[in-house]
Amino acid sequence: MKKSIVMAALFCGTLPLLAQTTAEQTLKEIYKLSLTKAKCYPWLDHLSNNIGSRLSASTGAEKAVLYTKAQLETLGVDKVYLQEVMVPKWVRGEKEVGYLQLGKQKITFPICALGGSVATPKSGLNASVIEVKSLEELAALGEAKVKGKIVFFNRPMNPEFVETFKAYSGCVDQRSSGAREAGKLGALAVIVRSMNLRMDDLPHTGATNYGDFSKDQRIPAAAISTNGAELLSKSLKSNPNATFYLKQSCQTFDDVLSYNVVAEMTGTEHPERIMVVGGHLDSWDLGDGSHDDGAGCVQSMEVLNIFKNIGYKPKNTLRVVLFMNEENGVRGGKEYENQSAKKGENHIFALESDAGGFSPRGFSIDGDEANFNQIKNWGTLFEPYLIHKFVKGSSGVDIGPLQSKKIVKVGLQPDSQRYFDHHHASNDTFDAVNKRELELGAAAMASLLYLVDQNGIVTQ
Amino acid sequence: MKKSIVMAALFCGTLPLLAQTTAEQTLKEIYKLSLTKAKCYPWLDHLSNNIGSRLSASTGAEKAVLYTKAQLETLGVDKVYLQEVMVPKWVRGEKEVGYLQLGKQKITFPICALGGSVATPKSGLNASVIEVKSLEELAALGEAKVKGKIVFFNRPMNPEFVETFKAYSGCVDQRSSGAREAGKLGALAVIVRSMNLRMDDLPHTGATNYGDFSKDQRIPAAAISTNGAELLSKSLKSNPNATFYLKQSCQTFDDVLSYNVVAEMTGTEHPERIMVVGGHLDSWDLGDGSHDDGAGCVQSMEVLNIFKNIGYKPKNTLRVVLFMNEENGVRGGKEYENQSAKKGENHIFALESDAGGFSPRGFSIDGDEANFNQIKNWGTLFEPYLIHKFVKGSSGVDIGPLQSKKIVKVGLQPDSQRYFDHHHASNDTFDAVNKRELELGAAAMASLLYLVDQNGIVTQ
Fold first, then answer.
1. Which among A156, B70, B377, B387 has the fewest CB atoms less than 10 Å away?
2. Whether B162 and A417 lie within 8 Å, measured CB to CB
3. What mean pLDDT comes out for the span A279-285?
4. What is the pLDDT of residues B124-152, one digit of tens each?
């Protein structure tokens, strides 16, 4: 009986009156706490400015594991522990060099190796450049026109999309698969236009994937800044036979032991039902990973801080997971699921913040129609906090592997306009994060977790 | 008949099917144009980086008038003209000096004169400091405790408000009325905590108002940075008798002739019905006024550029007004209304963008219930563009004076979290504006004007 009333109310877009009032009051407390006593901003300050970049297997990543574990321990939650996971170790090496030789003139370009790329020969490599806009265009050219050349992928992110992540999805195949596909056709290297909607001089790194290529089949892959890409394209039009010199010295070493950092408030009524909230602790090596994804980590930690401070004890177990190695392997996310499956754990809900610490706009919901409607119907509770956007879609890369039967997965959706200005680049730094925007994101996450904890997850 | 169908449809939250489809298509064109071919960002670049700050009666303001007029003329609209207006001329003078003398130690603070403030004596002034949190607290202290002292207003913006403008409203009386009220009690000067939610070292200026005080009754008023305010408060607690040295040399001169810049597309069906869109061209003198309000000006100009480029000819006259002197007098807004009233013009709608060039979230609507519902019901058309917020409230300072009988006034509401980090401070600069966020704001404005133009304004 009770359930059907709750269900009916949910589908009318409201909670029962008392629950509604209590929820309104709790959200108010959550937001007040987050905007006045949050720890997420000083935590991020430390992660970014004292530790810095946190590429898997780096000293920074190691320090970040110890620091966040220690900070979580100060919150007085029920459990804090590390979960072992083997991660890849890729090292950029010396600053990359890239220039176009035009007679006696050299035009130098801002470039950086893509993550996972192999090095060039020690003395670098020299080759003429062929520009393409897509993998399809490359395939159409065929081996005859590609062999022995550097392939330059120059399809920009489409500015017409209001959501920048759509523009990213429509573009990132050049970075992830460009080297593999060009390698098949005998290219010597690839240069990929940075995934950035802004015109500037910063190359943006990110993973490239060689598939099942053996080491000696792999060709070097570099990113070039957006301004650099425009200039290179223009220069090649006037000088199609100019040669490009590329030198990078990156290396891949044996896998290294690292950790996911985990902290829990045990559920008072259903300790066996787990709600996960997390982000990824690793970052790329160029900036300090403040937006990607220091923000998501400290916001997840903040949920515990908020619940502790407003005295809220979740009915279900609330587990914060700071995943290792999202950027170049998702080993943390996969290992978390492996261990969880082995233990037969029951995850009912997972929330990830991995889209930057910008003003939160809403949530992307990966669940069935009933799950979506349930969360969307909480919209009126979120309206005073300017959370308006409830859409169906993917949640987060780290919680992606989670397979529990009825799990609902959600991604926080902050404003996306500035995200790719910083993504994987040297300007992903603390000064680009606004304290209040970060705190509002944490409050939105805590609010959603509170509502899930109180109301459970409906099923169709 | 037609009208009642339209009205019924409007109140059901939809337009008639054909109108809905046409509107969807037009909004798509508007957004596409704005995200790919807008001129607002390069216009703002020029205003900010080539011209710089534009305080009324300054060279910058004069150059901005000529530049924007010339740019509007390139758009091929029906009329471009200047409207004369006399504006105040206040000049900051030499860099201000403020320090606390603690025995032999001097602690120097980041301060700046408030706009309109009088100077200190040439050699500066020295006095002990009394800290208050409000005008009420000041009044309660009375003349005995205030006379001969510097009053330090130190009430911070309340971080609990999600909307930062609410926090600003709750705080700004210290800046606008502090000097007048302290002057009545015989204070020598006032120092006011900057209206800034962020802790940093930048003093934020803004207008102070002496009411009907004669020149010799006016006392100097300065802003102190938020970090400075915290430090001053702490220092005074340990050294309540320490004296503060303040020196500023600002001056007010005779009023100067300046201009509102106006451009029009004449209405094809109702040329006598005017829709105004605008921002203010003047800025404070510390930064380059990119957010306040270069952004609003170039977005308003962009509406014309968009309409021209998509080939949309408004039925009603669309008038862009770049108002002069919002910051310290609103003379432009008042003169525009004076002239308009003299000519008996019929304004049906006015839209102002003066809350920064950040990601647009929605509109604040100043009209009756029917006007509000009409605009709110267009919400579904705006949803793909992440415009979700339709609230009742004030519109803009410059369009405030407009008195036409049935006018509806609307303010663009961008995300407000970062606005007061930059407001009236030296970091209100071009680099703090994101190109896409600016363009999305312009597109939202053009879309709303299109919908008003097509559907008219309903009345109760």
1. B70
2. no
3. 98
4. 999 999 999 999 999 999 999 999 999 99
B160 in A contact zone (CB under 8 Å): yes
**pLDDT at residue number B460:** 59
- Yes or no, beta carbons of A417 and B35 under 8 Å apart: no
What are the sequence ranges of the domains in chain A?
A: 2-88+255-455, 93-249
Q: Is B369 a catalytic residue?
A: no
Cα–Cα distance measured from residue B320 to residue B316, given in angstroms and rounded to the nearest whole number: 13
Model confidence at A2, pLDDT cuts 50, 70, 90, reads very low
Q: What is the pLDDT of residue A222?
A: 98
> Which chain B residues are closer than 8 Å to A162 by Cβ?
31, 35, 384-386, 440
Q: What's the CATH architecture for A2-88+255-455?
A: 3-Layer(aba) Sandwich (3.40)
Q: What is the pLDDT of residues A415-440, one digit of tens each?
A: 999 999 999 999 999 999 999 999 99
Closest chain B CA to residue A362: B386
For residue B361, which residues of chain A lie inside 8 Å, CB to CB? 386
pLDDT for res A280 = 98
| A418 CB within 8 Å of a chain B CB | yes
Q: Is A158 within 8 Å of chain B by CB?
A: no
Inform me whether the C-beta atom of residue A211 falls under 8 Å from chain B C-beta atoms: no
Is B162 close to A384, i.e. CB distance below 8 A? Answer: yes
A93-249 — its CATH code?
Answer: 3.50.30.30
A212 and chain B in contact, CB less than 8 A? no
Q: Domain B2-89+254-455 carries which CATH code?
A: 3.40.630.10
Q: Looking at the partner chain, which of B35, B159, B417 has a beta carbon nearest the beta carbon of A160?
A: B35
Identity of the residue numbered A85: V
Give the pLDDT band (50/70/90) at residue B63: very high
Q: Residues near B98 by Cβ (< 8 Å), separated by ≥ 6? A: B108, B109, B111, B191, B222, B224, B244, B245, B246, B247
Residues in Cβ contact with B64 at an 8 Å cutoff, skipping those fewer than 6 apart: B47, B51, B54, B281, B282
CA-based nearest residue to B224, from B249, B251, B246, B252: B246
Using the beta-carbon criterion (under 8 Å), do B385 and A162 form an inter-chain contact?
Answer: yes
Query: Which of A327, A377, A330, A265 is CA-nearest to residue A6?
Result: A377
| A226: closest CA of chain B, how far (Å) | 15
Q: What confidence score (pLDDT) does residue A418 get? A: 98
Nearest to A197 among B32, B198, B436 (CB): B436
Nearest CA in chain B to A34: B160
B163 interaction partners in chain A (CB closer than 8 Å): 386
For the segment A341-374, what is each residue's pLDDT rounded down to a tens digit?
Answer: 999 999 999 999 999 999 999 999 999 999 999 9
CB contact under 8 A, B162 and A437: no
Q: Report percent pLDDT > 70 for chain B.
A: 97
Q: What is the pTM of this model?
A: 0.96
Q: How far apart are CA A133 and CA A227, in angstroms?
A: 16
Rounded mean pLDDT, B425-447: 98
